Amino acid sequence: MLHVLPLSVAADGVFTLSDRTEARARAPDPLTNAVALDVDTLMDARAVWKTPHATYTVADLPRFTLLDYNGAAIQAALLDSVVLAAEWRWPRVRLRVNENASYGQLSFESLPVLSTLGTPAPTPTPTGQPAPIQTAAQVALTPQSILYASSDTSVGSTLDVLPWTLIPRAGYLLTGGVNDAARQFLPLGKGPYVEALADDKLDTRNHVQTYLNASETSFSSGTEDLLLEVEERWRHRWSRKTETMLAGGGYAARTRDAFDAPDVFAFNGVAEAEFDHTFLRGVNTADMRLDVRMAPFINRLTGLVDEQIRGTVEAGWAHRKLKIRAFASAAESTQQGTATSSRLGLAEIDAAYKFSEALTVDGGFRALYQEQNSLGALPAGAASTDTNLPIVESSLAQGVFFIAVTVRAVKTKL
After folding, report:
1. What CA–CA distance (Å, rounded) separates 98 from 85?
2. Whole-angstrom Cα distance, residue 244 to residue 398?
3. Pick from 31, 220, 33: which is nearest to 144 by CA?
4. For 342-382, how does the pLDDT look when each residue is reduced to its tens digit (9 = 90+)?
5. In whole angstroms, how far apart are CA 30 and each of 65, 108, 166, 364, 370?
6. Model's pTM, two decimal places?
7. Is the omega angle on the peptide bond into residue 28 within 30 degrees of 0, that is, cis?
8. 4, 111, 299, 396: which sits with the fewest CB atoms below 10 Å from its CB?
C-alpha cells in the first residue's frame, strides 16, 4: 500500500499567503488597572496539493503580539504554529494524518473567540453533520506572556460500510508551559487519547451515533487523569435548514492530585442537546447554533477532571459583502465551593466587510469573565500537617474593543 502514499507529480498545488493585523483596546489591564493598547498580527502561509486520491497540507502561522505598548509594562510575544496534514482516499476508506504544533511566547490577554477571518473554515464531518461547536475554554490567570509549547499528533480514518460510517482516531497531545515559570500558571500536560464514532444512517432524516472517548493525561504539577466517556446520540433533520441532536451516556474518571496521592474515582452521566438552523431570504443568509451539555472536562489549569454544565450560542448574518457574527458561552463546575471549581463566561461580536477577495476589514467587542478556585497557603501558626487549607478564588474580567485588517496577498499555483 505504501507505494501510493507519496505525493504524485501530477498533483495540483495552491499556495496562499494572508495576514490579519488587529489593534485592540483592553480594560482593565491586570498590571496597570487602566486601558491597555495591543497590536497583533497573524500570518498564514499555506500550501495545499491535491490529487484525485490525496490531499496534502503544509502551513506556517507565526503570530506576533505587542501588549501594553502605551505603558511601561510593554511586552512582545512571538508564537509560531505549524500544521502538517495528509489525507488519502479510496472508494470506501479515508486515512488522515495530522500534526499541529506550536512553540513560543503565548499571551492570553486578548485571544479571539471566533475563528480568525481568512483561515480555512472547519470542514463538515464525514457523516455530513456540522463540525462540533466551539465552547468556552479556560485561560491562565497571568498578565504576562509565558513560554508555551503544544503538539497534537493524530491518525484517523473513515470507513463506509453502508449504512454505517466508522470514524476512529488516535493521537498524542502535549500542551502547556515549557519552563518552571510558565508551569506555575499553565502546567505541562501530555498523554495519549483515542476517540471513535459509529454512525448508523437510519434514513435521510435520522442518524443514531455511538461516541467513545478515552484519554490519559499526566501533568507537570503531579496530577494524573484517566477519563472514559460513552455517548449515544440521535440526530434528526427536520428540514433542509433545521437539525437537532440529543445525547446521553456516562463517564468514568480516575484522578490523582499529586504523585504520591491515592486514586479518586468518579462516575456520572453525561447529556447534551444541540440545535442548528439556517435562514435564507434573497441575498440575506443567517445561521444559529445552540448547544447545552453536562459533561466532564479536563481543566488544564488544575490538571483535574471537572464536571461542568456548559451552554453555547453562535449566530451569523450575511448580506452581500457584510457579515456579522456573535458568540456567547458560559460554563461552571457542577460542584461549586470546592478547591478546583470554576466559572467562565465568554462573548464576542464581530462585523466584517469584504471589500475584495484580497481585503477584509472587521471590528467588534470581546468580553471574558473567569473564576478559578485553588488551595491557599497554611495560616500563620498552623502545623505543616494541617489539611484544612483555605480555598482561594482568583478571577479575571476584561473587555476588548478591536479592529482588524485581513490581506490575502498571494494565491498562486505551484
Report:
1. 4
2. 34
3. 31
4. 899 999 999 999 999 999 999 999 998 888 887 666 666 65
5. 17, 12, 47, 21, 13
6. 0.86
7. yes
8. 4
